Amino acid sequence: MNRLFNTLISAFRAKAVSFWNKFRLLLTPSFWQTRVISKLRQAFSRMFDVRPRDKKDYYPMFRWLVSKRLAYAIVISLFVICLIVLWQIGSGWMAQGGTGDPTYRYNSLVLKFYSGRARVTARDGYVAYVGNVEDGVAEGSGALYNANSDLVYEGAFSGSKYNGTGTLYYPGEGVRYTGEFVDNLYDGMGKEYRISGVIEYDGEYSRGKRMGTGKLYNASGSAIYAGTFRNGEIVYDELLGKTMSEAAQMYTGEQMLYSSDDESCIDMEEIGIICELKNGADSLEPEWTVGAVFIPSDEILIDGVSCISVSEVAAQLGITEYEGQSPVLLSEAVTINSLQDDGALRFEKVEMQTESTFEEVTNVLGYDQTYLAYIHSFARDGLLYTFYTSEENGERFDFYSISLAS
Prior knowledge:
The protein is α+β, with helices and mostly antiparallel strands. Helix content is 25%, strand content 41%. The chain has helices at 2-27, 29-48, 68-95, 244-250, 310-317, 330-341; strands at residues 58-61, 64-67, 103-105, 115-121, 127-134, 137-145, 151-158, 161-169, 175-182, 185-193, 199-206, 209-217, 223-230, 233-234, 255-259, 264-268, 273-278, 289-295, 300-302, 305-307, 322-327, 352-358, 361-367, 372-380, 383-389, 399-404.
């Protein structure tokens, strides 16, 4: 009796284990994925196996025979495409609660064929663009946002780039630039602002740089310079030959006049240059004029090439007109001392005795005229470029000047 009972228990256990294993298999996602993928593969294989095997596999159409399976495949494909399109349209419509501009992902198929106003989401899901689109491309007026929903740009678009008139913003801050754009770059007339909101520049741009006539402002918003700009920099040689009254119309910022018995120069502090003044008493123009401009910078841009050494300058300007030591003049001494004050220590300071009689005037009672600087001079296009090094074999220059070639 016990043997019979044990046999029945063993048979039941074997059946139960087999059933349990099958049940566990049915609960695993991989089993269903395999079954579903296999069934779909078979269905698509049958659907797209359009080769006719019998006369019954054709539809007669006029003088042609059309494969029934091919016709079925085309109809089903069109049906699936229509469902996808309708789903995309519906999802865009539902995203706005059925009203307002439709919302599409940046890579949405429907967006590629849509024209009109829309909201476009980025890869991360935030709304990146709101405005007009044509066939999936930003075209016309619109606004661009970052992931924090801060306004980045608003204005005209063409080909999904800033083209036309628009406004660019600092991230989460105020206006950075307002004016004309070409292919995302400042190009045309525009105004540039500091992050504080104070205007910095108003004038012409080309390919993202200040180029042409413009006006420069200081941190308090006061105009300090009006003139020509090239590659984002002031064209300093434009000041050469200008009378004091003409130069005063161009530069209206803070300044300091250094004057001795027979030499004078002006430190135009807010644009960082020193202008040597030439006495016109013995010429047809009796007024003082700008004879040279000193730029306390160890870098110069020549024909779009940035040069930081004498050899690089020579590669652009050619053979030197003069190389050697030269006693410093007042304007050179003031430039050297200004570099010292700013922490440029390769030059020793020039001894100078001064007294101040007015707020913007310093009388130079005397300075060390035995002080020698090593210079390299190059002539080009009626201008003389002079580069100052702290030693005879120095490759790096500390500052340079531009004057009219005699």
